[in-house]
Amino acid sequence: MNVIATDLPGVLLLEPKVFGDGRGFFMETYQAARYHQSGMPESFVQDNHSRSRRGVLRGLHYQLTQPQGKLVWVTRGAVFDVAVDVRRGSPHFGRWYGCVLDDVDHRQLYIPPGFAHGFCVLSDEADFFYKCTAYYHPASERGIAWDDPAIGIDWPLRDVALSAKDQANPRLADQAVENLPIYGI
Q: Does the predicted TM-score (pTM) go above 0.90?
């Protein structure tokens, strides 16, 4: 596995070894010891799977009191995946990293706790998988506006379909300070 550090410390782009031939391919999507050696100290307690159509944008989400680290990848289709540092006091506060995850390259992205996460579907349909380091806790879920100009994410699509909840997400500057995770905790 090739591990690529991004501009945001802790956010890792992973290129698993894929073994393919005329029958198809095989890859390990997760192996605890190997992933721990690559810089992911957390254990994973929950797996999620979503299916979305082209133009659906999910995010930007994070959990405040029970923050989740996420290992994400796509098994069918393609998405533009984004992590945003929303930890108050972080030297990288408000900065983002984005990349395409698809069923061709099989890359994965690790997003540590304290980062908001979102993705936009680029293909007709996409199956998106993620492993989480903490259980989903609805009461601590928070969100940031996907199109916040201060963050300036360069989304490849502008005409997107959002949930009602995501449409109501505030800009980062409008998020109450007590609703932002603290850097270093």
A: yes
